Amino acid sequence: KLISDGELEYVDYRCYRRYIKFKDYLEKSKAVDERCRDCILKRLSGETLENIGREYDVTREWVRQVVKKGFVKIQNSYKAETGFICFDEDYYELF
Asked: Which pLDDT value is given to residue 6?
């Protein structure tokens, strides 16, 4: 039942818990405003701080700070909502 509900996945004769991807949670989260969400999504897609700063007419340092604070807000919101500290991308780093 857990496998069919998508909570567990069966790989190489083992069951693993499935976590949501950071990007998927970011898109549905209300923890950050639209501008911050857009900056984070652009950083995840590989854009530089300089390019994002030019688009918003701000410094790259401002963009760096917004992205860093946004990550923390998203992680705290996710932990408060689900009780988990791991996103799908974090699983392999921690274990």
From this structure: 77
Q: What is the DSSP letter of 49?
A: H
For the chain, the maximum distance between any two Cα atoms, rounded to a whole number of angstroms, is 52
The reported pTM is: 0.78
Amino acid identity of 84? F
Structure tokens at 27: 């898109």
Give the pLDDT confidence of 9-47 residue by residue, as tens digits: 888 888 877 788 889 899 999 999 999 999 999 999 999
More confident call, 64 vs 94:
64
Instruction: Give the HSE-up count for residue 65: Cα atoms under 13 Å, Cβ half-sphere.
Output: 5
